[in-house]
Design goal:
Blueprint lengths: L8 H4 L6 H7 L3 E4 L1 H4 L14 E4 L7 H13 L3 E7 L6 H15 L3 E5 L13 H6 L2 H4 L4 E6 L14 H16 L3 E8 L3 H13 L6 E6 L4 H10 L6 H8 L2 H4 L6 H13 L5 E7 L4 H12 L10
Parallel strand pairs: 1-2, 1-8, 2-3, 3-4, 4-5, 5-6, 6-7, 7-8
GO molecular function: oxidoreductase activity
Protein name: Methylenetetrahydrofolate reductase (NADPH)
Keywords: Oxidoreductase
């Protein structure tokens, strides 16, 4: 993934901190992959101590690489949340082995459970709900379980363009959240427009879904990079925000930053404290360093890394 040019960093440090945005960014999480994490010399230079770091498990990544990354991040003082994509897990024995490795080598007690991006399951599982139903996470004493959320729907789950299957899955997850001692949340796909996000979050509450939402946001990146990822990930209505920006020649070559969408969400949260979006979860599509620096510039003291001077 391309990293941003950091020649502007000195001026970015003078960015006035918006109090509402600072509060909204507090306790944000971020996602890495083993290959991107390997390029970071020391996460303490980038992220506040205790930040929740998701480790994305892409098909073909050896479990050994995932566990090694989890161990490194835990050793550096971060809360590690590996992905468990159902469709790339062969069977319950494989799932139990992964859980045991993460716990034994990195002390992991939280996970993001999701179906995964592959079309055909490699084994027994095709949904996050099936992973839960094995009882293995409960048996292992996992304290926190997150599920995927889809503010703009998911055509893999609902090919007809409706939200029927997504909604049914949310009701199942709500029922599970009410019955388990584990803390449950929805970590969503990234989106670029605050208004559809707010409308979706409010619709959950109206439907009786009270699971806290950790809203997915794409970090700073080249516009072309974001459009590529948005199309690949099936991001729908808010993709128009990027396409409109791409038509403006004056903005086409400038890096995208999530300032506008997050400022609007932060203002809504400040005006509506019971708004069910609880945290921000970053997808560092333009690089971990660029994303971390943006958070430092806009989030005040709560987003400064442990090694900050």
């Amino acid at each position: 993934m391309a990293l941003l040019n950091f020649r502007k960093r000195e001026t970015s440090r003078e960015t006035p901190v918006n109090g509402q945005l600072e509060a909204f960014l507090k306790g944000y999480s971020i996602e890495v992959m083993p290959r991107t994490a390997a390029k970071v010399e020391n996460f303490r230079d980038l992220l506040p101590e205790g930040t929740r770091v998701y480790i994305a498990h892409i098909e073909g990544t050896p479990i050994e690489d995932m566990v090694a990354t989890a161990r490194r991040l835990a050793d550096e003082g971060y809360r590690v949340m590996p992905h468990f994509p159902a469709r790339i897990i062969k069977d319950a024995a494989t799932l139990a082995d992964w859980i045991a490795r993460y716990q034994g080598e990195a002390g992991v007690d939280q996970a993001l459970l999701l179906a995964g991006g592959v079309a055909k399951p490699v084994g027994d599982f095709h949904s996050s709900m099936q992973l839960v139903e094995t009882g293995l996470f409960d048996k292992a004493g996992f304290k926190r379980l997150h599920f995927a959320g889809h503010p703009e729907g998911n055509k893999d789950i609902d090919p007809d363009g409706s939200t029927r299957n997504v909604d049914a899955a949310l009701r199942w997850k709500q029922n599970f959240a009410e019955q388990t001692d584990a803390q449950v949340a929805l970590a969503t796909q990234f989106a670029f427009d605050a208004k559809p996000i707010i409308k979706w979050a409010d619709s959950l509450r109206e439907a009786g879904i009270t699971i806290p939402v950790h809203i997915g946001i794409a970090g700073p990146a080249k516009l072309q990079t974001l459009i590529k990822f948005a199309i690949a990930c099936g991001v729908g209505p808010s993709l128009k925000v990027l396409q409109k920006r791409a038509m403006d020649v004056s903005k086409l070559m400038l890096p995208y930053e999530p300032t506008e969408v997050l400022t609007e969400l932060a203002a809504h949260k400040a005006a509506n404290p019971d708004f069910n979006i609880e945290k921000v979860h970053f997808f560092p599509l333009g690089g971990i360093k660029a994303n971390a620096q943006w958070a430092i510039d806009h989030g005040g003291a709560s987003t400064r890394p442990a090694n900050a001077s």
